[in-house]
Design goal:
Blueprint (H helix, E strand, L loop, with lengths): L8 H9 L4 H51 L21 E2 L5 E13 L7 H11 L5 H9 L5 E7 L1 H10 L4 E10 L7 H4 L1 E7 L4 E7 H5 L1 H5 L8 E2 L4 H17 L4 E8 L5 E7 L37 H10 L8 E3 L5 E2 L2 E2 L10 E3 H7 L2 H11 L1 H10 L26 H8 L8 H12 L24 H17 L13 E10 L5 E14 L6 E8 L17 H15 L21
Length: 595
């Protein structure tokens, strides 16, 4: 702004010459300056009022819009809030090999209280104790009337319980949304599922984390939001699993066993189509781990991978297969099994002190001769025996994809002497899990290749390294078939399905050393169909006793074998295996007419 002088010389000099006073000129200029200043101030004030008016208009519009939104929205329960990172509750589903649901998420609510906001704490405590019988009214009253400002009442409630709490009508009882893990099949495949629980929790959400089984092993995959629409596909077949569990449970009860396990494995892929461990549990309501006593008595104990047992004579086929593969014997080689036989100063006996005399290698497996197997083991030697069993995976925990499998590491002899080689050859002195045994038998069944047990569905064969020749594997399969047709597993025959297998009965070790005289681990390891094996089935019973006869019978031939036969008869059609006639030679057919 150009400032005009109050006494400009251009006007003062002419005014003096004319005899006028210069003060008039100053008063006139001062009045003009004040008028200009008032106009400028008025314009500035009007601009500020305009801006302030626009601001208040926008503010009232926002408030009005928000009030309108609240008026038209559904009423929402007020919730406490806390600072912290956002909690991701999303978790991918788990399905079986055919896409059927094994585990999914379910929307529910948690119940919590804010005592300072409660109107009638005494009445609320009484009503809650009536809705939830496991809650103590006195403790609730103490919590509600104390200094606590927040407490969880129940982490999961049903819709019926939520409605009952609503009807109490106390504003201090609030609900937090939850996404819990649901296993729609209950206890089916419980040890594979394992279970899930809540991790980080807030009133608006809770983190779902795996605590055991595949839920824990694949926790990172299942919690990754990118996999929300890509369920984890397992190798299990839900229908086969259900049938196997029902048969095994019935067999365990009939045979008076304290526990049982079964494993069905594809011999070419290593896929575990069914795995059962009894007793089991419901992962929807997972029990607490045992804090005392024998952990194997807990329903959480997974006998298929955590149970490390001496599996008895089921190991004899490995000795025979290796001896044949090394060229030391053939199935028809005769070995003298007469006693006495001593190794390292210790006698090697037979079951019930039998003396079989001279037997072929095939008959040694059929009759389950300890001495015959032991003599083959001595010919093989300690080092070669160790290398062979190690190649089959008997020295390390199985790679089976549940967290419990890591704990099932085999128990090996501290000093592997000639005596150890002999006892290991017939399944004593080396303890492994039934899952190890299934993988070992799969190598015989598929022609001599190792396979890694897996719970994930595979797209095709997944064979490992070769550990024996095809001819040696076939010779072993023929021996296993003979065990069922003429040997200790005669009750294992299933019409229409050629079954091959080997029984194993091992005395159960005492916790403080030695063995029980009346407690055994009975196992039947099978392959079927024997002429073209597709599957391995392992059935193991813990402390079975068959009581239909005059004396109690505990051997696998009387206990595990009938259970396995019943299971094969049930599950083989479910696997798509058609009953057929076992291939035979045509030497008995005589041509009677050419017409």
């Amino acid at each position: 702004m150009t400032r005009t002088p109050l006494r400009p010389l251009a006007r003062i000099l002419p005014a003096r010459a004319a005899g006028h006073s210069p003060d008039e000129i100053e008063r006139e200029n001062r009045a003009a300056r004040h008028e200009e200043m008032r106009d400028t101030s008025r314009q500035r004030a009007e601009g500020r009022l305009l801006v302030l008016g626009v601001f208040f208009f926008c503010a009232f519009m926002v408030v009005g819009f928000r009030m309108g939104m609240l008026a038209t929205s559904e009423p929402v329960e007020p919730r406490a809030s806390a600072q912290g990172a956002a909690i991701s509750a999303a978790r991918a589903d788990i399905v079986d090999r055919k896409g059927r649901l094994l585990a999914t998420n379910f929307e529910t609510h948690a119940l919590y209280a804010q005592p300072p906001h409660m109107i009638d704490p005494m009445r609320a405590a009484k009503e809650l104790a009536a809705i939830f019988p496991d809650l103590e009214e006195k403790k609730l009253v103490k919590d509600f009337t104390g200094k606590r400002k927040f407490l969880w009442i129940r982490k999961k409630i049903s819709p019926e319980q939520m409605q009952a709490v609503h009807e109490i009508g106390d504003p201090g009882l609030l609900f937090g949304p939850r996404e819990m893990r649901l296993y729609p099949n209950g206890s089916l495949a419980a040890h594979v599922m394992g279970g899930a629980s809540f991790g980080k929790e807030g009133v608006h959400a809770a983190e779902v984390i795996g605590v055991a089984g595949v839920e824990k092993h694949f926790d990172d995959y299942l919690r990754d939001p990118a996999n929300g629409q890509r369920p984890l596909k397992l190798s299990l077949d839900l229908t086969v699993q259900a049938a196997a569990e029902r048969v095994l449970y019935g067999g365990m009860k009939i045979m008076n066993a304290k526990g049982a396990t079964s494993i069905l494995m594809d011999v070419h892929t290593g896929e575990v189509v069914s795995v059962v461990s009894l007793p089991d549990f419901d992962p929807n309501n997972r029990p607490r781990p045992a804090t005392s006593g024998d952990q194997s008595d807990s329903p959480l104990f997974n006998r298929s991978v955590q149970g490390v047992y001496e599996l008895g004579s089921t190991f004899k086929i490995f000795t025979a297969a290796q001896a044949v593969d090394l060229g030391l014997v053939s199935p028809d080689t005769v070995i003298d099994t007469k006693g006495p036989m001593r190794v390292g100063g210790f006698p090697i006996g037979e079951f019930r002190n039998k003396n079989y005399g001279k037997l072929t290698v095939s008959d040694i497996i059929v009759k389950s001769s300890n001495r015959g197997t032991g003599r083959m083991a001595l010919d093989i030697g300690v080092k070669r025996q160790q290398e062979f069993l190690k190649s089959l995976g008997f020295f390390e925990a199985t790679p089976f994809e549940i967290v419990e499998a890591r704990t099932g590491k085999p128990l090996l002899p501290k000093r592997w002497t000639d005596l150890s080689a002999v006892t290991v050859s017939y399944g004593h002195g080396l303890s492994t899990s039934p899952m190890h045994l299934a993988a070992g038998y799969a190598a015989i069944a598929n022609g001599g290749y190792t396979v890694a047990p897996t719970i994930l569905k595979q797209n095709g064969p997944r064979l490992g390294k070769r550990v024996m020749s095809e001819s040696s594997a076939k010779a072993a399969r023929d021996m296993l078939r003979a065990v069922v047709t003429t040997g200790t597993a005669s009750m294992g025959e299933v019409p229409g399905y050629a079954v091959g297998g080997k029984t194993g009965t091992a005395d159960k070790p005492k916790p403080n050393g030695g063995y029980y005289e009346d407690k055994v681990i009975a196992t039947f390891a099978t392959i079927f169909p024997a002429h073209d094996p597709k599957y391995v089935l392992i059935v193991t019973l813990d402390e079975p006793v068959e009581t239909s006869g005059d004396k109690p019978r505990r051997t696998a031939g009387w206990t595990a074998v009938p259970v396995a036969a019943e299971m094969i008869g049930r599950i083989a059609p479910l696997l798509g295996l058609r009953p057929g006639v076992e291939p035979r030679s045509l030497t008995d057919i005589t041509l009677t007419s050419s017409n």
